[in-house]
Amino acid sequence: MNPVIPATALAASLTLAHASAHAQEPLVVRIGHVAATSGAIAHLGKDNENGVRMALDELNAKGVSIGGRKAKFELLAEDDAADPKQGTAAAQKLVDAKVNGVVGHLNSGTAIPASRIYADAGIPQIAPSVTNPKYTAQGFKTTFRMVANDAQLGGTLGRYAVQQLKAKKVVVIDDRTAYGQGVAAEFEKAAKAAGANIAKHEFTSDKATDFTAILTSVKAAKPDVVFFGGMDAVAGPMLRQMKQLGVKAKLMGGDGVCTAELPKLAAGSLADDAVVCAIAGGVDASQRAALDKFKADYKKRFGTEVQIYSPYTYDATLAMADAMAKAGSAEPAKYLPVLAGNAYKGVTGTVAFDARGDIKNGALTLYTYRNGSERMELAVVR
């Protein structure tokens, strides 16, 4: 004779069974990444994307648990082509896909308008390479950055030009993008305050290839330093044409110029110490081994060298996952407060943010180039 099971007991049993089965299902965590993976700076965008891929591969291999469930991390990658309109479209696409967090964008010009879309949706955004101060000045609780901003970057380069390079006369050129204008303005302000004469401020675009008119004017001014606010895709041809026209000044630039690709883009026009540039980021001696290992692992995985910011996208992704694990949830509203107050030890150093979302104690690394292609570190400053 089969016993009769009360309906209430049967319902409870089914509920427990369902809960148990649910706990065994992987928790799908979608991480969005946006950068320019097409166009002139696609090499930088792919570098950033590769850093996220490495982090997600490692998280999945380790079998990270969030709230008692094994997490399965997925990448949703979008290309914004460094275009603000495409950037906001990509941001909305990720919001509609209900991503749990975003690492990106590459450029200030796309990250700033996109940040409002993420903020309205309550989705945390960690920008690995955005330096324009406006990015975190908007007051969004969801907005974080991994590197020092343009005030620090341009200011440091401006002082270095006068104090170390002994520049007395300076010409400034910017590409009219949010990044280029921002870093150029901060450089000009700092160089002028340190005693330099700003002979000219010229303007180009991020799509320009012919600088004959600008550089003819620059040559007539006989500057000691030309500062360019923009990216390597423009700086490379500019260096070639500076050499062709006999412009003797050193070229200085921010992180957009300071790439492993610059020597190729300059096509043999890169004389020793002709360029001094700075990357918004840098590690102290205690972090060198971890960063060197990352670079070796990256080259093994992708068959190419790190450009600039893949270590920062890697750390940003792991810092986001660490906050989720500590919060016991991948829901943005639940792990966001943890992310804001967390301190994650990464390959680039400790990832911790101030009240505005800026990285705490952000470093800068000054570089030059020698032997036609070798990027040489000059100093790490904070």
Give a description of the structure.
- The protein has 382 residues and is α/β, with parallel strands linked by helices.
- The protein has 2 domains: 189 residues, 3-Layer(aba) Sandwich (Rossmann fold); 146 residues, 3-Layer(aba) Sandwich (Rossmann fold).
- Helix content is 45%, strand content 21%.
- The strands form 3 sheets. The protein has a 7-stranded mixed beta sheet with strand order 8-7-9-10-11-14-15, with helices on both faces. The protein has a 6-stranded mixed beta sheet with strand order 2-3-1-4-5-6, with helices on both faces. Strands 12-13 form a two-stranded antiparallel ribbon.
- The N and C termini lie far apart (80 Å).
- The model has no long low-confidence stretch (mean pLDDT 92).
